Amino acid sequence: MKTIAQLTYIPLYSDHPKEQVQDIIEFLAQHDVEVDVNYLSTSVIGETDVVFDLIRELYDEMAIEEKAFRLHIELLSPVEN
């Protein structure tokens, strides 16, 4: 089974929001998931454990940088491989 997570990252109080969003996309692309970049969000598709671990790692990484952000996550029902 694969999980689909739709992520919307919104940097707050940033002079360079596009750069921060691009950094997040590059971070996601380094993992064992499919990444589909859309106009308002990015979808990641992968094994359930990998997707959930990635979400946690992404959140922890952003928290270390101590920048204000919003991260909206929508999880779609699992799909067959």
Q: What is the H/E string?
A: EHEEHE
Radius of gyration: 12 Å
- SS-derived structural category: alpha+beta
N-C termini distance: 5 Å
The top level CATH class name: Alpha Beta
CATH overall fold name: Alpha-Beta Plaits
Global morphology: elongated
Averaged pLDDT? 90
SS elements, strand count: 4
Q: Which residues form runs of ≥5 with pLDDT under 50?
A: none
The count of domains is 1
Spatial order of strands in the largest sheet: 2-3-1-4
In a nutshell, what does this entry contain?
By secondary structure, the chain is α+β, with helices and mostly antiparallel strands. The chain is 37% helix and 38% strand. It has one domain: Alpha-Beta Plaits (2-Layer Sandwich).
